[in-house]
Design brief:
The longest helix is centred in the first third of the chain and has 21 residues. A 5-stranded mixed β-sheet has the order 1-2-3-4-5. It starts with a helix and ends in a 9-residue tail after the last strand. The chain is built from 2 helices and 5 strands; from the N terminus they run αβββαββ. By secondary structure, it is an alpha+beta fold.
């Protein structure tokens, strides 16, 4: 898969994820937030707290296995900490780490609290 196709797939998936999360009552605060090497696909807010959402859009389900492994989780948590450090109003809220999986343009599958960081 070439880079432009992969980028288009990612944008499509993120839009599907945004649509799903907004329909569930969440407000999208950021899309593709970056700071240095840190990156978060989506950051949303709802009455429960702030959600850091990883979006995985693949052409085949077999490529989803292990796509949010421990290394990826560490990177997401590091980015979330960095984001919260610069957004004082959000620091007191509960933080959730969610995943949205999409296979070949099908209906997105939302996994709230897909992982809970247990590492420092």
């Amino acid at each position: 898969m070439n880079a432009s196709h992969q980028s288009a797939l990612g944008r499509r998936g993120e839009q599907q994820a945004c649509d799903l999360l907004v329909a569930k009552g969440q407000t999208v605060l950021e899309r593709n937030w970056r700071s240095g090497h840190r990156e978060l696909d989506l950051i949303t807010l709802d009455p429960a707290g702030v959600h850091f959402v990883e979006v995985k859009d693949r052409t085949d389900e077999k490529f989803l296995a292990g796509s949010v492994d421990e290394r990826k989780q560490r990177n997401i948590v590091s980015a979330a900490r960095h984001y919260l450090a610069s957004h004082a109003a959000l620091r007191e809220l509960e933080a959730f780490f969610d995943v949205v999986l999409i296979v070949d343009g099908q209906q997105p599958r939302y996994y709230p609290q897909a992982f809970i960081p247990y590492f420092v």
